[in-house]
Design goal:
By secondary structure, the chain is α+β, with helices and mostly antiparallel strands. It has one domain: Deoxyribonuclease I, Chain A (4-Layer Sandwich). Helices cover about 20% and strands about 25% of the residues. The strands form 3 sheets. A 6-stranded mixed sheet has the order 3-4-2-1-14-13. A 6-stranded mixed sheet has the order 5-6-7-8-12-9. Helix 3 runs parallel beside helix 4. It is globular, with a radius of gyration of 17 Å. The relative contact order is 0.15. The structure holds one DNA strand.
Length: about 270
Amino acid sequence: MQLATWNVNSLGVRLPQVLEWLRAHPVDVLALQELKLTDDKFPADAFAAEGYQAQWFGQKTYNGVALLTRTATSDVVRNIPGFADDMARVITATVPDPVAAPGSSDGIRVIGAYFPNGQAPGTDKFEYKMAWLDGLRAWLREELTRYPKLVLMGDFNITFDDLDVWDPVGMHEQIHCTEDERYHLRALVALGLADSFRLFTQPPKSYSWWDYRDMGFRRNRGLRIDHILVSAALKERARACQVDRTPRKNERPSDHAPVVLTLDSL
DNA sequence: ATGACGGAAGTTTTCCGA
């Protein structure tokens, strides 16, 4: 079983690349972020033609998230219960666990999230990011008791540590790299979630985002800010986690690359 | 270098992202 996350920076622009990628990588679940379109513009038919069902949560101009799945989902939730938010940032659904008994209600809870950017420490947007992270964690604490098999994936807009940063000195305490933000990632881990990427040996200087400017990708000046976190029950089933850099080489790429998790399905 | 690129809105420029 494979699950993936990809910030596409406008699904309207990137739809052909997403369809192409799905044909080459027929994952079971793909979480999309930054749709940048309203719900009425979501290309559900194009995904259905590729064999994917979809749940989506869009808005005009900014944000917007979706879950594409091979199987039907249940118990879909939009945004963070208990945290009032104008922005479409989170979509959650339960997918069947191929390992569980047929007809079992013991599914995998999948959360696709587009964390706030935060702009810079000291700004209102940074304060919003901190409040959003508080709200996310409070909800996740409960969600994990309901769903022991849980995946939290998306564009976190936070690096775990300096290994995730191409220029740790230059970016020290800059947005995505502050201790305040990293504290929140560690707090998610403390809830019982693991960074699946670091369960495995990875190529040095592995990133998931590169600035469009200044040939960021060609010079591998990037950040690892797209993550797939798994609960303990799924951690033991994790078999691989990789960044797929190839779509970043497309002619009009997203600035993010997909991250793919492979789970043992026995 | 409050820059560089790219997308959206919408109109020739601004906001935002990371």
